[in-house]
Write a structure and sequence with these properties.
The chain has helices spanning 9-18, 23-35, 42-51, 56-66, 70-88. The chain has 99 residues and is mainly α.
């Protein structure tokens, strides 16, 4: 069974500010969380943070602050990477070789 982690809004907002996420992007993340009734899958949450401009290392620190262990964090990023690969698979790529 999956674990559940809880963080107070003010603590998350502080962690996001430390990570360099702008106030505007922070509000976008919180709006998304509110639409999901403040429950979100960790992979989706990490993806939201990436889209808001946070670097991988900063996202790791936010996830650690929430209480997620390093093994789970690695798994979260592996899943995110797999999703990115799947989303680009099959797209047309133009290749030009100059000889």
């Amino acid at each position: 069974m999956a674990s559940t982690f809880t963080i107070k809004r003010i603590n998350l907002k502080r962690a996001m500010a430390i990570a360099g996420i702008s106030e505007k992007n922070s509000e976008v993340v919180f709006a998304s969380l509110n639409r999901m009734h403040r429950h979100v899958n960790a992979v989706a949450f990490a993806g939201m943070l990436q889209k808001s401009g946070a670097k991988r290392k900063d996202i790791e620190n936010i996830l650690r602050r929430i209480g997620i262990d390093d093994v789970s964090i690695t798994s979260i990023f592996n899943t995110l990477d797999e999703e990115k690969i799947k989303s680009t698979f099959g797209k047309v790529v133009e290749l030009s070789v100059d000889m």
